[in-house]
């Protein structure tokens, strides 16, 4: 897969607020999913976002959908990335496909990122305000490029405010207390989280220019809480 092809894909994705998020070639020992021809794919190009750039495109699409549509953001991502995949002879896959694909490992491989204490990959420019929405799989091998060795900003952070802002200590060095977090978000004291997003995530000082607007964070928290 040539750099020119990646540039053309980037142009097509930009119409929807999406961007390429790095790619890699599957090795002989990888359990590669099927590519366009049905054989194990030779390479993958991840697709995602920086900040909330896709939000207006998603909202415009949502206005034309049934009101009772389940998981609309996943549906929009699949439809949008699927169209781009077909235009470039690729096969599209999604993080919510079952059986689940190792998107986090793919992302670490493609972009050289590491997880933050919250589990979200820390990006040197976007901070915690980015996401992976899908991947394009190809039968051809991508031009091999070593992922850059990124500075892991969490290693340089002494205060770790992301572990000190949650009122129920949902995140700690031992992991994520899912049940405690969910009960808090659904409860009477969880209004700030429901309306403005995760307090721990918002406490991180990195990538503030890409921080999701409150309505976008509220959307994700409603999804998490099952509202």
From TrEMBL:
- Under which name does UniProt file this protein? 4Fe-4S ferredoxin-type domain-containing protein
In terms of InterPro entries, this protein maps to: 4Fe4S_Fe-S-bd
Q: Where is the 4Fe-4S ferredoxin-type domain?
A: 144-176
Origin organism is Aminobacter aganoensis
